[in-house]
Amino acid sequence: MKTENREGGWLILLTFVAAMMLTIVPLPDLVRTLRPEWSALVFIYWCMALPHRIGIGIGWMTGLFLDVLTGSLLGQHALGMTIIAYLVINLHQRIRLFPLWQQAFIVWMLLNLYQLLLLWFDGITGQPSKGLGFWLPPLVGMILWPGIFLILRDLRRRYKVT
Amino acid sequence: MEETPIKLLFTQGPSTTARAVLLVLISITLMTLDHRRQHLQTLREGLSLLVAPIEFLVDLPVDIGHWIADSLASRQQLMEENARLHSQNLLMQARSLKNADLESENQRLRELLESSVKVADRVLIAEIYKVDLDPYKHLIRINKTARHGVYIDQPLLDAHGIMGQVIETMPAYSTARLITDPGHSIPIQVSRNGLRTIATGSGKINQIDLPYLPNNTDIQVGDLLVTSGLGGVYPPGYPLAHVTEIERAPELEFARIKAEPTAQLNRSREVLLVWSGDRIKHMKTRQLSTTAAEDKDSENREP
Q: Contacts of residue A71 in chain B, CB cutoff 8 Å?
């Protein structure tokens, strides 16, 4: 059981590293604020597909890495990811059966919740307000979701990650 | 695909809520501690080491691009550049000759006045990592760390003016806040008439605001703003910005004044770290102490 469980862990790690690289890769000023939450998207996929392997603990760790990576308050992204993980774990059997567009909608809601939590703690710690542009990344995430889902599913099937 | 998870979830199911609550509580604790800054330095440093390879990978293409451009530059181009730099160097040398003279004269006059201002500053060149952090904050990562003597609150310049200040030093990099960050303020002076005020970041990379000047202030478009040195973070007399727009609205208490930073905030690849006055001596003792292998934490935290 243990050995079977480990299989393909490198692929999961690789996708997370890629997501984090996309999180900090320099973009032109115009599209900087549109950058979706790559790590959250990748995490939602893995959490939904393999809830017995990728759970709350890993979500929390990913969030902590994001905090250090983006220089935000330590624990801010971690908390958002924990909440996302909790919801996805509880809903994964339902979300899996949804058609892609409906999945994308759920992902949009999850990402909005994530942004809301980030905004909330920014507010508590006295960061200046960010305007309505702050709500665009979840929309971009929703639009990208079908693509991300298909790519990651193909990868998962090809390398037989279970 | 669907048969294994059900069985496995059963063994994990009941504890999910408890674990989620626990991790949320831990996150909140971490945030509280981190908001007070000092407590989590070691944890942050540890995590930053794990994250550093990712930053390195993102920065790599830019680095390789520079390297290729350098190696492919033609002889002709290099000769031209060499000639240009040579003449520029001559010019600078001539100017610095005069400058050295002026500096000593200034020092002499200041001694006469019994003022304690020190003119000499020490600088070190650092390179910016090409990574994007939070789009709503203006933060940059540089490749010099506490090992090189970088300290928190250290000012950062480029060839044209003040860029920002260091806010954290990690084992593999330091993070600095630019003057245009909305959470950043800097005490300044109008160089034409010595008027003192505070400039705050606007969140736009080419603009800072002067929100605390009354409508009848003597300030004009084109005025040069320099650091005043009050507050003790920035050395006095470095150029910061040119006033670009003044809006005197009679119904408001303060005039709305915008200025454009003289530093090339989003174009420079290299920045200068400055040690001024007491910090130079400080750094020398620090370098000695690092060779004597003292513990690093106490150094980082000196005020």
A: 133-134, 137, 139, 168, 175
Cα B17 to chain centroid, rounded: 42
List, in order, residues 6 or more apart from B258 with CB less than 8 Å away.
B202, B207, B208, B209, B210, B243, B244, B245, B246
How far apart, in whole angstroms, are the C-alpha atoms of residue B150 and residue B290?
13
Residues 18-57 of A with CB under 8 A from B: 20-21, 24-27, 29, 32-33, 35, 50-52, 55-57
Gap from A82 CA to chain B (nearest CA, Å): 6
| Block mean pLDDT (10 aa), chain A, length 162 | 63 92 83 88 93 89 90 89 93 90 94 92 79 87 94 91 80
Which of B34, B51, B175 lies at the smallest CB-CB distance from A73? B34
Decide if B50 touches A, using CB distance below 8 A.
yes
**Chain A contact for B123 (CB, 8 A cutoff):** no
**pTM recorded for the entire structure:** 0.74
Instruction: Give per-residue pLDDT as tens, B130-169.
Output: 777 777 788 888 888 888 888 888 888 888 888 999 988 8
ipTM over 0.85: no
Give the domains, in start order, of chain B with CATH numbers.
120-179+266-300 (2.40.10.340), 185-261 (2.40.10.350)
CB neighbour list of residue A59: distance below 8 Å, 6 or more residues apart: A43, A47, A81, A82, A84, A85
Amino acid identity, residue A146?
P
